[in-house]
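If you are new to this repository, start here. Below is one unmodified record pulled from the training split, so you can see the exact layout before writing a loader.
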Amino acid sequence: MKKIQFLEKTFRFMGKHQMLLPGERVVAGISGGADSVCLLFVLLEWKKCFGLEFAAVHVNHGIRDRAGEDARFVEELCKRLEIPFYLRETDVRRLALERKCSEEEAGRDFRYEAFGEAAAAFGADKIAVAHNLNDRCETMLFHLFRGTGIRGLSGIQPVRDEIIRPLLWAERGEIEDYLGQIGQAFCTDATNEEDIYTRNRIRRHILPYAEREVAAGCVQHMGQTAELLSETEDYLERQTREALADCAERAGEACYILDCGAFMTFHPAIRKRMLYQLVKELSPGARDIARIHVTDLCGLFETAGNRRICLPFGISGRREYTRVYLERGQCGTEITGAEEAFGEVFRKTFRTGFTVFPVEDLPRNEENTLIFPENQYTKWFDYDKIKRPPVFRTRGVGDYLTIRDSQGRLCHKKLKDYMVTEKIPRDRRERIPVLAEDSHVLWLVGHRISEYYKVDENTKRVLQVQLIADCGSSSTEEKNGGTCESSLI
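And here is the target side for that same chain:
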């Protein structure tokens, strides 16, 4: 493809998705790799045609030895092209430990934070990043393998809020060919050739195999499918909003009321989307809302009878006659009398994280035995043994743990008796958080988990549960896991 054709296709793609208006101010994330260097020159050409003020921002993650060379390359390139340049640096490994997440996630979050800060300093309306069509296909497969909906299957979007992706239409080879035609060098990230990240394995092995052995042109075909799925998602989102207007009403800041009769007139696909949308609005994030939670909520509408179910983040679904109430702060925090103080302290002290993933994602040793990192505040459970959403609360009457007796057989033990046996002081017993499914305790925080819910050789899906301390400015941070000390546990 000739360079003029490449630019024409890029400009048409930008126009189709209304990425830029004449004279807008933009910051562009420039790593120094082929994609981002191409983005820099595309924006220069757009500036010639339509007018544009833009600056470049480079993020040094501090991981690779030659990261400083990449920063100098981008800075010198921007100086030659007379483009304002911003540099942000961090130690991603340290940041990942501080934020208790993967290096990949920490790096991505820091990049977008840096882009946002540069945009504010430059007075930019938009942030341009250099994802290409291969990236979009990799994301589609990544989401498909882990389980997702239509939005996830459509992969990276051309426009998301202030983020624009002008090169999302182009394959990686087309981008490198364009740079060759204009005689522009770029940096090569050696970590892209390593298999340490899941996306790298998809990029290096799965997509090339599909292109070679399944269907030539598969990346282009997947790109077309992504566009179709994105349009479908936009349509369904509109239908969902209209449906919610017909059968749901807001009652205060943390409550929605749905009419059962009106709700059941809609197609099951729209019903599930409505519930997911409402729960997402009630929760601090949709990451820990799984299909099982939406399915359980649907059951409230499908069978008559007053009852309630609990979801993560203290959200509940409650049916009363012909109405269903979705409320935040009604489950896992339903505390009365002397326990009320515990609930308030617990909510202010901890954030909870619930993540479901296939057992294959857990690390193994050379003997193929599962490895569970030593972490007092993160535990793993067999997800398929859990029939109702577990919640954090104080201990209650009838609570029990599953333990092994002296012959190794599973048996129930009252939580009260366990606390006595373990010589847990009486004044602490009411303050220790428990994670429970009804009366069955999965985890007595700081002590043990139930034998019944442990991951074993038959486990298919794993539920990871985290207690993440909201330390604020506290200096009482434990070295193991970075979790604040708390009088609760």
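Two things worth knowing about this chain: The first strand starts at residue 25 and ends at 29. Residues 218-247 form the longest helix (30 residues).
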